[in-house]
Amino acid sequence: VPSPPSYVVETQYVWNLYSALLDDTGRCRVITVHGWGGAGKTTACKMIANNANVRQRFKDGIFWIEHGETASSGALIERLAHAVKRSGGEKASEYIMRHMDAGKFELARDEFQSWFDDREVLFVFDNIWDSKDRDFNRWVDAVQEIPGGKSSLLCSSRTPLGEKNVKFTQLSEEEQTKLFLRHLQLQQDSREYHDNMEFAQTI
C-alpha cells in the first residue's frame, strides 16, 4: 500500500470516509470517493489504507489495486489473483488465472470468494475511469458478495459507484491554510506556525 505525502491534513471528507468504512453493518460494502481530478481522492485512500484503526479492522490484509485510464480487465484479474497469492493462496491464485484464461469466469469467481470467505480484508481500487466496463463490474460484484460480509471495497472515481459515496470538492479556506503550513512542516503549537497562519489568511 503506498504511503500518503507527509504534509497532508485529515479533512472532513477523510473523516467521512473513516466513518463509512468502519461502520459495521455486518456485510461487505462498496464505498466510493468521487470528485473532480486533483481533489485528493487518491491521497485520501492512501491515508485510509495506512490508518492504524483501519488496518486493525481489516486484519487479514489491505490490497491496493491501481485501475487507471489505460487499465485492462486482464490486468485487474491478475492483480486480484496476486492478492490471493500474497495472502497465502498460491494454488488458489493459479486456479483463478487458469480458469480466467479458459473463459470460465464463474469458476474463477467462486475460487476467489471461497479463498476470502469470512476474512477481514479491504480492497482499494484506485483511479477508476470506466465504471461501465462489464468485466470490472463483475469483479466489483465478486468482492461485494464475498461470504461472511467482513470485507469491503474502497474505490476512487470521478463518479459515484457504490452503496456509500463520499464526494470530494474544493477544500475550505481553513483546510487550504492548514495544508499550506503542513507543507512548510511547521509544528502547530509553534510561534512560527501562528505567524504564518496569520500571513496565509491574508493571501
Describe the structure.
By secondary structure, this protein is α/β, with parallel strands linked by helices. The protein has 9 helices and 5 strands; from the N terminus they run H-E-H-H-E-H-H-H-E-H-E-E-H-H. It has helices at residues 12-22, 41-50, 52-57, 73-86, 90-101, 105-116, 134-144, 173-183, 191-200; strands spanning 29-35, 61-66, 121-128, 152-157, 164-168. Strands 2-3-4-1-5 form a 5-stranded parallel β-sheet, sandwiched between helices. Strand 3, helix 7 (134-144) and strand 4 (152-157) form a beta-alpha-beta unit. Helix 4 (73-86) runs antiparallel to helix 5 and helix 8 (173-183) packs across helix 9. The longest helix has 14 residues, at 73-86. The radius of gyration is 19 Å and the shape is globular. Residues 199-203 have low confidence and may be disordered.
